[in-house]
Design goal:
There is one protein chain. The chain is α+β, with helices and mostly antiparallel strands and 311 residues long. The chain has a single domain, classed as DD-peptidase/beta-lactamase superfamily (Beta-lactamase, 3-Layer(aba) Sandwich). The protein contains 12 helices and 9 strands. It has helices at residues 8-20, 70-82, 84-88, 117-131, 135-147, 155-164, 166-177, 185-196, 202-213, 228-241, 247-253, 290-303; strands at 27-28, 44-49, 54-58, 64-65, 199-200, 258-260, 265-270, 274-279, 282-283. The strands form 3 sheets. The chain has a 5-stranded antiparallel β-sheet. Strand 7 and strand 8 form a beta hairpin. Helix 5 packs parallel to helix 8, helix 5 (135-147) crosses helix 9 and helix 7 (166-177) crosses helix 8 (185-196). It is globular. Bound molecules: glutamine (GLN). Glutamine binds at residues 67-68, 100-101, 117, 161, 168, 196, 261-262, 287. Glutamine binds next to loops. Substrate binds at residues 68, 117, 161, 168, 192, 244, 262. Its EC number is 3.5.1.2. Keywords: Acetylation, Hydrolase. It comes from Bradyrhizobium pachyrhizi.
Length: 311
């Protein structure tokens, strides 16, 4: 039992952990074969506040691949590196209402937004056009600044996704025939597959989310990683599209900008308040972590965190 000397927030996270540990619903993603090896029992919750406190419960040090949670960070980097005009000329900011891997483009033959695969591949393409062969290293180092430590790649997951990623390749070619990307498609996909294979922990993702919530300043290192301008745009797209075809439901029920990944992570960033990172690899039909959703719903309700219910 938890003694009352524990901070109330930590006690609350322990209650969440215990309540949702028995949750059995969902399935580990296996369309990327290597992801199927994840331990479905793993469950970690971490919360970082903007004054630099990090609270952790459960498997918060277990590494897993960032997958689609890389998308908001790479979008923010693209905005700062290439300028909003360039990015907006080829990537929309409208929710798609489609699953993350949809091949459908908008009426202009552009990706709907940067949170679905098509938009994220377009972002990787923009950075590749600017940085050439250095694009992935540029992304890896920047994501490390969001996390406050150097991040590595899971080579096995990278190889597994690269070997089976034909749908994303098809999206890449579709983007090129519509001049959204002008680069060599395999080179762009290589950047995208590698960025999705970056290893993080629940703790890392809480700090990364807290950096989003803190106008781009990492609350632990105090480094300004991207501009407040890029952060506001990124949080906007996370709000409308971060949870794919569950995004409307999510913002209605939880009310915190968030992003999920098929590795089992969810990160949520409440501006001027906190960053949350959760890890539990069993996913629902939208590709969102089942336990992660429950943690966010419960936290939001308990602390009255809905972003449209502020005083
Ligand atoms: N790398 C995964 C893919 O492109 C990312 C998807 C996700 O996390 N939703 O399919």
């Amino acid at each position: 039992a938890w003694s009352s000397s524990k901070p109330p927030l930590l006690r609350f996270l322990h209650t969440c952990y215990a309540d949702f540990l028995p949750e059995a619903a969902g399935a580990v993603a296996d369309y990327i074969p290597e992801l199927g090896k994840a331990d479905p029992a793993h469950f970690g919750i971490s919360l970082a506040t903007l004054d630099g406190h990090v609270y952790e419960v459960g498997d918060t040090k277990v590494p897993f691949t960032i997958q689609s949670m890389s998308k908001p960070f790479v979008f923010a980097l693209a905005l700062d590196t290439l300028g909003a005009e360039r990015v907006e000329s080829v990537i929309g900011v409208e929710p798609s209402g489609d699953p993350f891997n949809s091949i459908r483009l908008n009426a202009e033959n552009h990706p709907f937004n940067a949170m679905v695969n098509a938009g994220a591949i377009a972002c990787s393409g923009l950075l590749h056009a600017d940085k050439g062969d250095g694009a992935f290293e540029f992304i890896r180092q920047a994501l490390g600044r969001f996390a406050g430590r150097e991040l590595d790649v899971d080579e096995a997951v990278y190889a597994s996704e690269s070997a089976t990623g034909d749908r994303n390749r098809a999206i890449g070619y579709l983007l090129r025939t519509n001049s959204v990307i002008t680069e060599n498609v395999p080179a762009v996909l290589d950047v995208y597959f590698r960025q999705c294979s970056i290893l993080v922990t629940a703790r890392d993702t809480a700090v990364m989310a807290a950096t989003l919530a803190n106008r781009g300043i990492n609350p632990l290192t105090e480094e300004q990683v991207v501009t407040p301008y890029a952060i506001a745009r990124t949080l906007s797209v996370m709000t409308s599209s971060g949870m794919y075809d569950y995004a409307g439901e999510w913002i209605y029920r939880v009310g915190i900008p968030a992003k999920s990944g098929v590795g089992g992570g969810i990160l949520a960033a409440l501006p001027a308040r906190l960053g949350l990172g959760s890890y539990s690899p069993k996913l629902d039909k939208h590709g969102n972590s089942v336990r992660g959703i429950k943690v966010c719903e419960t936290l939001s309700a308990h602390y009255d965190l809905h972003m449209l219910n502020r005083s």
